[in-house]
């Protein structure tokens, strides 16, 4: 492999959603260079950051029935029991909830935590308070998915944060989705909540770093040995 190909292989691809923003930052940088050179360099750094924000690296997802993988990159900020969003129809009892906080430096492409059928998608406008706060689950703008699986329904909720102002969905109701497949994106800095059925075995802890599509959050069937993997 040539040096150029080796370097190119280390650069993750950019999600198409990011092209307009990267182009806007780059154009602004050129204008800033014309006005005042130091401002242009600041704009260049922001352009590089914007490109990194929209990176969409290949992930290798474990393929086995019963596994629940992380839907987002970031820090597991909370593992608790909480009422799921009413619009998902997951019942009126608290469920196990795993929350992943994404900073503006994390990958923001979101992936399905499990294979199943998207039974419902519900968008709800709201506030933009700090996504790390527990009340952000109720007050902030959010987009919620209910995924039907052989192990029960799972709720996945994209929550906007202080800086985030746009939740993008790539899927539709009735669609079948595989574990680790891309289903959406949040701009810029936010949180994902995963609601799991009672009795689920959680395999992560608060403070742990999660990698979307790769980190195993839970296992519905810990007795089944063996894993296979898929790059996507």
From TrEMBL:
It catalyses: a 1,2-diacyl-sn-glycero-3-phospho-L-serine + H(+) = a 1,2-diacyl-sn-glycero-3-phosphoethanolamine + CO2. Pathway: Phospholipid metabolism; phosphatidylethanolamine biosynthesis; phosphatidylethanolamine from CDP-diacylglycerol: step 2/2. Belongs to the phosphatidylserine decarboxylase family. PSD-A subfamily. Catalyzes the formation of phosphatidylethanolamine (PtdEtn) from phosphatidylserine (PtdSer). Its EC number is 4.1.1.65. PANTHER family: ARCHAETIDYLSERINE DECARBOXYLASE PROENZYME-RELATED. Is synthesized initially as an inactive proenzyme. Formation of the active enzyme involves a self-maturation process in which the active site pyruvoyl group is generated from an internal serine residue via an autocatalytic post-translational modification. Two non-identical subunits are generated from the proenzyme in this reaction, and the pyruvate is formed at the N-terminus of the alpha chain, which is derived from the carboxyl end of the proenzyme. It is a peripheral membrane protein. It comes from Bradyrhizobium aeschynomenes. Its main location: membrane. Its cofactor is pyruvate. It holds the Pfam family PS_Dcarbxylase. Heterodimer of a large membrane-associated beta subunit and a small pyruvoyl-containing alpha subunit. This is Phosphatidylserine decarboxylase proenzyme. The record marks 189-190 as: Cleavage (non-hydrolytic).
